[in-house]
Design goal:
Largest sheet: 10 strands, antiparallel
CATH class: Mainly Beta
Number of domains: 1
Shape: globular
Distance between the termini: 39 Å
Number of helices: 4
CATH topology: Jelly Rolls
CATH architecture: Sandwich
Order of helices and strands: HHEEEHEEEHEEEEEEEEE
Amino acid sequence: MDPYRFPAMNPRALRLPPIAWFTVLSAALAGSPVQADALDATPTLQRPASPDKAPSPQGFIQRWTLLEPIGAMGLTDKAVRETVGKEHFPNQLTIVPNAGDKVKVGDSELSWHAVDTKEYNVNLFHFARALEKPTSNILTWGVTIVNCPEEIHDVRLAIGSNAASIWWLNGQEVIGIYGDRQTVIDDGVSKRVTLKKGANVLRCAVINGGGATDFCARFLKEDGKPVLGYTVSVSGVPK
């Protein structure tokens, strides 16, 4: 039985360990914002400790720069399109952010955070909760850089998300899935794409209604096996 074929939603994933709650509560009582260290206290996330990271043996991309969540409503095709089509901050479809960069969204200033996931999926519930941000009715942007030693033709981007999501590779939209859904591996698979030699920018927008929220992504070969042999990096992480 392939354990990676089960949905990512797990009741235990909704609970933070005592140390994580202690970190959040202590910061709140001190009257200071929760820092990125709080992410290290989550069950699934940690800050990158190296410049580059290979995908998991199953091909899952485990390093991302995530923007703190933006309020959003609706999971239908139309609602998702309207949410993503709205300019929340300048250059939202082209920016390659540095960890620690800030953007102004409405009256709020939001930060980008570099994270590694310990699992095949990126748990956005853990991410938002650790930073004392909303976890329901939110839009989360993610960006990562796929570094290929050689050009790779005829691969497909395979994704899953809870709930809806839209994905871009090197500025071109390649896939979207909609509705109130749990994360299932390879739930959506793009048409054939080419990973160019050097840096490729992969971008996603994930919209959640309520409850758990996460996503996963990997590239697949024509035979369905995962693409390996590349590394993933994010900007602004010390070398």
